[in-house]
Amino acid sequence: MGKTLSDKVKIGNITTKNRICVPPMVMFNWSDDRGLVTEKSIKHYGDMAKGGAGLIIAEATAITPRGRLARTNLGLWEDGQIEGFKRLAEVVHKEDCPFFVQLLHAGVNGVDPEADTCSDYEIKRGENVIHGHEMSKERIKATIDDFVQAALRAQKAGLDGIELHGCHSYLISQFFSNVINKRTDEYGDDKSLFAKEILKACREACGDSFAIGIRLGAFEPDLAAGMEHAKAISNLCDFMDISYGFGPGMKAEKPEDFPYKEAFYGAMQIKKELPDMPIFGVDSIKSGEDARGCLELTNIDMIDVGRGFLVNPDFANDALAGRDTGRCLNCKRCYYSPRFNDETSKCAGAELRNRTKM
Questions:
Q1: CA-to-CA distance for 216 and 220, rounded, in angstroms?
Q2: Mean pLDDT, to the nearest integer, of 260-271?
Q3: For a designed S-S bond to 68, which of 12, 49, 62, 212 qualifies (C-beta 3.0 to 4.6 A apart)?
Q4: Are 270 and 242 in contact, with CB atoms under 8 Å apart?
C-alpha cells in the first residue's frame, strides 16, 4: 500500500501525526531589531497547529545579529529570546504537533555589509552591495559554536528539534556551492565539511533525543552535486528538507513530464539514494489534491505546504478530510514578502476564502 497524507512519520525520536509540514516562512516586520517573538507570531503558529499540521518548523531564526537575513529576523542569539520560543512551543504542542526551528546564518546574503562567507564574494541585495569576506578558521569555529548555542536555547525552550538552513544562498549553502566556495583548505576540498561540523557539534551538545536535520539544496549547483552532499551528511541527520541551492549558477532540473516543481524532483531522487532517511519536499503545493498527488509520485515522507497555510490555517484538517483548502492566488501580497509592510501585507487568497465561507 502506498503512502497517504494521514500516515505518521518517525523523525529521530519524535513522531508526526500526518505527513503535512509547515515549512519555515519568515514573517518580515513582525518583530524588530531585538529578534523577539511577538503576540502575532504566537497566534500565527498556534492557528496552524490547530489547523492540523503534522509538523511545524518555525521561520528562519538568526544565530547571531550579523547573520540575519533581515533586520526584523527572529533570533536565538541570546538567552532573553528563549521565553518567546517557549510560548511558541507551548501553543504548538497543545495541538499534539511537534515543533522545530530553522537556524540561520545568512552570510553574504544577509544584512551585514561586510559579511562572513566561505570565499571573498560580492552580491547585490536591492540597492546595496554586500561584500563577503572569506572566514578564517577561527571565525568558522566561532560560528559553529553560535549554531550550537542557538540549538541549546531552542532545546531549553522546549522545542523538539532544529533544522539548519543549508540552502537558498545562505551561509551553509555558500560553503556547499563550488560557484562561490573557492577555498584551498579542507573546507574547499570537502564542501560539506562546514555542515558536517555543525551537525556533529549540535548532536554532541543536544543529545540523541533532540531531532537535528537540514534544509538542503538539491541543486548545488546541479543535482549530482546536491545528491553527493546529501549522502555525505546522511549519517549525521535525522531528516532532510529538500529545496534549492545557491542562486547564481544553480541548475535546477526535472523531466518535461514531471508535474511538480524541480525541488520535488530533487527530493524524489535523493529519497531513492537514501531510502531510510525522512525526506521532505517543497514548492507550490497549494491544495490537498496537489499534496496527495505529489506524495504518491515522489514517495518522499513529508509534504511542505507554505502559502496554503497562509491562505487557510486549517489547510491540513481540510486536506485530510477531503474538503476545499482554498488556493494561493500568486498575488505577491504574502505576509512573508519583504516587499510589503505590516499594514499592506494581506493575503488575497485568504480574503477570498473568508468571503466565500460567510
A1: 9
A2: 98
A3: 62
A4: yes
What does each C-alpha distance from 47 to 29, 192, 336, 353 come to in angstroms? 19, 37, 16, 16
Query: H or E segment at 27?
Result: none
Average pLDDT over the chain, rounded to an integer = 93
- Cell numbers at 219, concatenated: 541543486
Phi and psi based region of residue 250 (left: phi greater than 0; alpha: psi -120 to 50; beta: remaining):
beta
| Beta carbons of 73 and 104 less than 8 angstroms apart | yes
Question: 169 in the Ramachandran plot: left (φ > 0), alpha (ψ -120 to 50) or beta?
Answer: left
Rounded Cα–Cα distance for residues 206 and 213 (Å): 13
Give me the helices (H) in 36-109, please. 39-50, 82-93
- Give residue-wise pLDDT tens across range 306-353: 999 999 999 999 999 999 998 887 776 666 665 555 555 567 666 666
Residue at 248: amino acid letter: P
d(CA 314, CA 294): 20
Measure the N-to-C terminal CA separation of the chain; round to a whole number of Å: 39
- What DSSP string describes 296-358? HHH--SEEE-SHHHHH-TTHHHHHHHT---------S--TT-TTS-TTT---HHHHHHHHHH-
Question: Residues, the chain, total?
Answer: 358
Cell representation of residue 189 = 576540498
**What confidence tens digit (pLDDT) does each residue in 91-133 have?**
999 999 999 999 999 999 999 989 999 999 998 877 888 899 9
State the Cα–Cα distance between residues 158 and 183, nearest whole angstrom. 38
Contact in structure between 303 and 281 (CB atoms under 8 Å): yes
What average pLDDT does this structure show over 44-71?
97
Collapsing DSSP to helix, strand or coil, 29 comes out as coil
CA atoms within 13 A on the CB side of 184: 0
Cβ-contact 152, 158 below 8 angstroms: no
d(CA 175, CA 56): 27
Section 24-32 average pLDDT: 93
